[in-house]
Amino acid sequence: MSEEFLGYQRAKGKVGIRNKIAIISSVVCVNHIAEKIAYEIENCVAITHPLGCGQFGPDFSYTLRTLVGLGTNPNIYGVIVVGLGCENLTSKLIAKNVKRSKKPVEFFNMQDVRGGSKATVEKGIKIGKMMANEAKELKREPFDYSNLILGLECGGSDSISGITANPAVGLISDKIIELGGTSILPEFTEWIGTEHLLIRRAVNENIANKIHSTLNNFLESTMKLGIDFRGIQPTPGNIEGGLTTIEEKSLGTIAKAGKAPINGILDYSDSPKGKGLWLMIEPGLDVESMTGLAAAGAQAIIMTTGRGSPCGNPVVPVIKICGNPKTCEWMANNIDVDASKIITENKRVEEIAEILWQKLKRICNGEKTYAEILGFEDIAIWRCTAAPFQIFHS
Amino acid sequence: MGIKKKKFVIMNSKDSCATALENIPKQSQFKINDKIIIINQEIQMGHKFALDDIKEGDLIKKYGEVIGIATKNIKRGHWIHTHNIKSHYLEAIDK
Question: Which of A69, A121, A286, B71 has the fewest other C-beta atoms within 10 Å?
């Protein structure tokens, strides 16, 4: 019984650990409207971004898929999509896709509301308050951890992250997978140097080939732009901290993903096609990465940090674990789990993992992370089209 | 009574290096796997020292995996850093 958490039942067998209303702006022009609506509604978050207009090809697809994924995430009870009316990423298109999750979804454009932004905000508040009242009726129920998707993130790493917090997270990822659940490792630029190990862990040859070709294509195409990704790691700060080679740094990074076999490799913001461990293509920027994990359906994220990072996500609680004694002391009100006891109190990685596991369970049951308490609700969506870059630099 | 602190960590039994968990002063002595290791210079926290003599061209392991190749002979207890280790991965790719 102890390996259960109290979550919210959603349609299609999904389970949330939060029960929020999301106000999504379809385009940058109405971000402030979304924020004003969210501010007036209980347990409500605004999901805003600088995109939604004049985007084409893969960039358009990533923005659409990410916003739809964030609305679809089981931590969200209901969604209101606000548009302007002339953008190419329409509120209607986002709403239509989120509706597939069978949750309450409404959408409207400011240009269709008489009374300008003020009336649009009022309209949103009215609908949002009704949704919030319905959401309150829902009670938490026990579920097992096969219902959980865990995101594995790191940011502001230092040279001891790889020997303290990251291996502790690896044990938790393995535990979730043993319990029938799922975890996702993003940030593929930080796997470079460990391809051979990831390939060895792939469940079949197809997946192994895909891991290989994904990294190879990325390295080759960035080479054409004059960027050698293999040459910029480890950074001067990493080297000062004791790291020596790209493979040493990456080994510390992938320690977060434990020892489980790799079931597949996901595109940015794409949901896992089954349980177990998945990789996600994402270039290694914390907020973009966590946005992609939330859009993929992760209900919880564990973020290891060494130098310290305050980041959070509007949809998903982000648990911070840190192995650096100074950061744990200086940023005590940003760090949820102190892994520096491995250094200062002779604790073993396994003991820290147990503390992290108890924390994760309480967070799943509703306890707030520091990022949630402090209101860090950061969104950034990966933009991948290199064409403008090439035009400006040719 | 204070808690006795661990001065270094060895991530895997196959490793050829240990990572300092605090600044380890020169001349510190440890007994690891029945061998006496004498630290030849201060090792900063997060930095590594050799658990055994390493020859130029040997592969160096941490996490039980190869993290690089020795570019010089490295004596037991000596600092391992960018002056005596280089990426084996980049080496292999360039070939």
Answer: B71
C-alpha B95/C-alpha A248 separation (Å) is 20
Complete DSSP assignment for A145-161: GGG-EEEEEE-S--TTG
- Burial class of residue B29, CB neighbours in 10 A (0-12, 13-18, 19+): exposed
Which pTM does this prediction carry? 0.94
* Domain residue spans of chain B: 8-94
Nearest chain A CA: its distance from B35 CA (Å): 22
| Alpha carbon distances (Å) from A200 to A79, A275, A283, A310, B2 | 41, 19, 22, 35, 44
Of A158, A244, A344, nearest to B85 by CB-CB distance is: A244
Q: Which residues of A270-284 are buried (b: 16+ CB within 10 A; e: fewer)?
A: bbbeebbbbbbbbbb
Q: Tell me the CA distances in angstroms from A52 to A16, A109, A384, one per residue in order.
A: 27, 13, 14
Residue type present at position A385: T
Band (B1; pLDDT cuts 50, 70, 90): very low
> Which of A104, A182, A148 has its CA nearest to residue A6?
A148
Fold (CATH) for B8-94: 2.30.130
How large is the ipTM? 0.94
Q: Is the pLDDT of residue B24 over 70?
A: yes
Which amino acid is residue A40, in one-letter code? E
Name the fold adopted by A20-137.
Answer: Rossmann fold (3.40.50)
pLDDT for the residue numbered A1: 45
- Which of A167, A245, A342 lies closest to B85 in CB terms? A245
pLDDT of residue A155: 86
Which residues of chain B make contact with A237, given a CB cutoff of 8 A?
Answer: none
Chain-chain contact of B80 with A342 (C-beta, under 8 angstroms): no
Closest by CA to A72, choosing from A113, A46, A104, A118, is A104
Q: Which residues contact A313 (CB under 8 A, 6 or more apart)?
A: A290, A291, A293, A294, A301, A371, A376, A377, A378, A379
- What tens digit of pLDDT does each residue of A101-157 get? 999 999 999 999 999 999 999 999 999 999 999 999 999 999 999 999 999 999 888
The 3 state secondary structure assigned to A253-282 is: HHHHHCCCCEEEEECCCCCCCCCEEEEECC
pLDDT digits (tens, 9 = 90+) for A184-197: 999 988 898 899 99
How far apart CA A385 and CA A280 sit, in angstroms, is 18
- The residues with which B48 forms a beta bridge, in sequence order, are B19, B80
pLDDT in tens, B33-88: 889 999 999 999 999 999 999 999 999 999 999 999 999 999 999 999 999 999 99
Listed by start position, the domains of chain A span 20-137, 144-374
